[in-house]
Structure prediction request, 377 residues.
Amino acid sequence: MSGREDPEGDGTRVVRAGLPAPVGGQPFLPGPMFAAPYHLGEGERYYARYQNPTLEAFETALSTLEGGPVVVFPSGMAAISALLLTALRPGDRVVVPSDGYFGTRVFAHQELARFDIGVEELSTVDLDEVAGAGGLEGVALLLIESPSNPCLDVCDIAAVASAAHDSGCLVAVDNTAATPLGQRPLELGADFSVAADTKALSGHSDLLMGHVAARDTERASRILAWRTRSGAVPGPFEVWLAHRSLGTLDLRLDRQAANARALAETLVDHPAVTGLRYPGLRTDPSHDQFSAQMRRPLGLLSFELADAATVERFLAASRIAVAATSFGGLHTTVDRRAQWGGDHVSEGFVRVSCGCEDTVDLVADFVAAADSLVSPP
Ligand SMILES: Cc1ncc(COP(=O)(O)O)c(C=O)c1O
Prediction:
């Protein structure tokens, strides 16, 4: 992990991000402003599809963390689709991750192909070699997802971005798993950082949200214009909730990562578990690149149980793990990915998103549930 390079630590930055200067008698974070039209008059605001101070405060907060201008969207997919539709033109080629969030592939194949945009897939582990060998020549946009979801593979974002730029290709990174506290794609050379803030960034499993950060203001303005014209504007209450939740991101990520490391170290040699992936483990194939590139460890791990029925038994035996998709929330969740049909994984493959429970409780619970699979009571 790289050391502290900012004048203030992550905890200080997220607690203060996007807050207005203190005013006597006013809250630290002003409440959501609910409006569609505003009274016309001296002020600059006239309609909430164009201006809303609640959104602007959250965008300011995120841009201090990302290092570039930010546009927020009502979901991660709204952010990704806005990015793809504004960056690409008919006849372009785009490369999306074959091992990343499957919704992105579905969108690209189902929606972009209609505009005569060629959609190709590459796996995260192949990117370094393909980009380095000039394999992105003629590609307009490369979307990277590193760490990839759900298998947690990692590529060298700086090297891939540099090779892509040499080929005239723009680079976007889906930074959902890392959050801007874990990794800053713009600093690594990407043109865009895009994320589902539905996950760890808001972290309470109670809203959908997304954002795009752009390296330069012109590209950010283009994305903002898309949002205004298309109307994909998030509601102020959800944005305010996300901003309110951002203040604890550093604390949540710390606990989630401590829990993930403890589970990974405990379960990696468990007889019921195979193929455990956690980039924080020295033995993990992603470990070296992950440690060089990421600013902090992840709260996610994955492993395989024998089959779907064994996952059911594991969940029934656990008191803490909740069967749920999505990740990054306060509650530890286990998602058997094959049930959704979009990932190239086995029937017993699970992604574990560690929550903020006490580490000792979580480890005891998972070990007991895993033990029950090899020695049923
Ligand atoms: C890596 C990644 N990107 C994007 C998305 C889409 O986010 P949303 O569900 O908020 O549209 C997800 C959702 O699971 C995801 O995991």
Remarks:
- The chain has two domains: 10-246, 249-374.
